[in-house]
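thread from #wetlab-drylab

HS: before we spend reagent money on co-crystallization trials with s-citryldethia Coenzyme A, can we at least see a predicted complex? here's what I'd submit
DV: go for it
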Amino acid sequence: MSDTEIKKGLAGVVVDETAISKVNPETNSLLYRGYPVQELAATQPFEAVAYLLWHGELPSAGQLAEFEQRERSLRSLDPRTLQLLDAMPADAHPMDLVRTAVSQLGAFDGTLHEANGWTDRTLDLGRAEYLFAQLPTIVAAVQRRRRGLPLIAPRDDLDYSRNFLWMTFGELPSDAAVDVFRVSLVLYAEHSFNASTFTARVIASTTSDMYSAVVGAVGALKGPLHGGANEAVMHVLEEIGRAENVVPWLDAAIAEKRKIMGFGHRVYKHGDSRVPTMHAALQVLLEESGRRDLADLYAVLEAEFVARKGIYPNLDYPSGPAYHLLGFDTEIFTPIFVAARVTGWTAHIMEQSASNALIRPLSAYNGAEERHVP
Ligand code: SDX
């Protein structure tokens, strides 16, 4: 065993097949069930992308209408979920609140089968649709609660993206804001065996339940090396403050060997395929907001860091400022990532369950030689 090569972080290790998405660093591309993500972001409502990830095909008009109707009927929270959130400390991180709420949904699961007509065959798909519909209402409630504002009920006359913004801010958003938000959700939805998705697959591989797998995935996504980076990007931009501070700030950060949030990627080494699309969406908000200071800071930091280290932005870099300009609290950025990525997670959980093998790697022992209690 001693001469076995260890692949720390499973870097470069292919552990299974998936038909859900293809991340290709050579061509810097990302396909969801064969469709380039850029085409989906340009043309599809987020509900259609969720359907595609779960079913492998884009929905027909009839299938989409039927799914939308079902999704809208599942948006309202059980009063006990609101009681749970109210029982949590006011300064709890929103990711801890979202993780806890998902865990509670799992405890309700038994009562949902009948209520929603789930049969054994459709059980996990029903759960996936339920989580998809519940998470925006949970995230919006957490945002409103942080600001001491009354909760806003979901509206079944609004599509997923517009309703998400309505429940959060209590006013109908502009079409431009809805479209930027929808693009971010499509780009965040799925990304093969990233850390949180693989966490979900490990839990699913023990034949545990979908909620347990999603709770584990939320825990993995919270980390700043992964989903928590979009929140951390905004903290970095606010720490630097203005474009003219970038050079001295970077000098110090690089000297301290700090990881600059929003840059780098385990798979993409020459740029993240999703960044140009999210960057363009961010520009719409920067123009509309007139925030030249933020636009300059964002551009200078990217140019300076790429020039010095040859490490490129990932999706979290444009997404952070975009969510800031949409009006979300910084700590709500990663919960939004949860609401989008729950589509990919649940698709992978169902794929793992459909052709399962318990995930259990080996380790090379480097501890004390065998010895015996005196
Ligand atoms: C996401 O996997 C996915 O698909 C994830 C994701 C998804 O959609 O699910 O794309 C979402 O998680 C994107 C990544 C968000 N994280 C961040 O922005 C955090 C900052 N990034 C780094 O921590 C880092 O780039 C990682 C963790 C993302 C990837 O790191 P790797 O592949 O493990 O590479 P590494 O850390 O070994 O870095 C190689 C070198 C190191 O230098 P040396 O120690 O060899 O001298 O590059 C340096 C690193 O220090 N480096 C960075 C850096 N990223 C890499 N140095 C400073 N800042 C960075 N951001």
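DV: The beta strands are 21-24, 29-32, 35-36.
HS: ok that's useful, forwarding to the group
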